[in-house]
Structures are given as structure tokens and as C-alpha cells.
What does this fold into?
Amino acid sequence: MPTNEDNIHPEIPPLNAMLCPVTAFQQNCTLLWCTKTKKAAFIDPGGEVDKLLAAAEAQGVTLEKILITHGHIDHAGGAAELSERAGIPIEGPHLEDAFWIDAIEKDGPQWGMPDARCFAPDRWLNDGETVTVGELSFDVLHCPGHTPGHVVFYNAAVSLASVGDVLFQGSIGRTDFPRGDHAALINSITTKLWPLGDDVTFIPGHGPASTFGHERRTNQFVADRVLAR
It folds into this structure.
């Protein structure tokens, strides 16, 4: 017979996450961790490294790595400093975004981020690979369009995707930057993200979270009814 104590302690989810918006762009840097091991990763640490390290300490987690969706400065500008200070590797994005990472220091002053630095990832990522955080596993999906080397991280166990600037609540990523490609972006969303399922919650690079199902119904750029025209 179950006790009252059994009934009041629900199963702890395998993954936990919190948003840490950084820089003037309010980019959704995400701290996520394996609840079993308390090993953690930051996805897209664009800057404000002191703030990020304090957030990790407050959650009582051990930083294991940095994951990068793409090479734009607001997503990757703080990666070099965080990697050095925490002594952790950087994984991602895809090699096609190397030119963006190489431009971070040159671009920094014009975006009000003079301390942003270039870096060489410890691991470039390819479509179909996996990355791990503690005992968690994330599928890597190469989703070009916003940038040519953009990747998405997807955890099937909790139906959660970190999509960077591929997709937003009610919008999609810009494609007017160098090597942006609108047709490629739409293809990435419809062939890589939609098949994961309508119930998948996604964390975008900016703004509130949503689900793929909600965007398929309502997003003016990629709703099913829009693409069917």
C-alpha cells in the first residue's frame, strides 16, 4: 500500500532549465542541467559572463560545457570568456558558421560588445550527431537559413528543443545577413522541426517559448495554411 509520502513526491523530471537573458539584445541564453547528476550546460552565452556564472552557482549545478546554436555575436560573444573562466569546452555550431565566429571581435564595438571574443570550438557539430549533458542526450539538427551553420538541440525525453534564431513565437529568423537563405530556413523548419511533433516546446533565441503545434496553427510565416497557398 502506498504511503502518503509516496503520493506527495512526484517524479523529478530528467531535465531542468532556466532562461538567462543577456546583452542589450536580451538573447535567451539557457542554463539547462541533468537533474540526476546536476551537470549543466549553457546554450548561447552571448555575454554578461558574471551573471551567468552566478546563475549556475545559485542553482547548485556543475558546468560541463557550452553549446552554441550559431555564430552571431549575441549568441556566441561570451563563449570564449565563459569557457576560460569555467574551464569547460565549447561544442557547436556547424563549421559553416566559422566566418561569423571569426568576425566577433571586429563586430563587437559596433554592437556595444567590445569585450566579445572569437574562439575555436572544441567540437564542430554535424546533422545527426548527439551532444550530452550529464546523462541527458540531445539530437543535433543542422538547420541552415538564418545562418549557414545554425544547429538546433532537441531532447526527446522531455520534448524540448533549443532552436536559436530559426523560429520564434509568431515569427522566423532573419535571412538578410550574409549567407542568409529564406528558402533554406523555411525548409529547415518544415523538414527538420515539424516532424518532431506538435507537442514539442521550443526555446527561441529571443522572446517567449512556444510549441511547434502552436506555430503551425498561427505563425504568419510558416503556419500550415500559409505554406499551403
Q: What stands out?
A: The domain at 4-227 is CATH 3.60.15.10 (Metallo-beta-lactamase; Chain A). Confidence is low (pLDDT under 50) at residues 1-9.
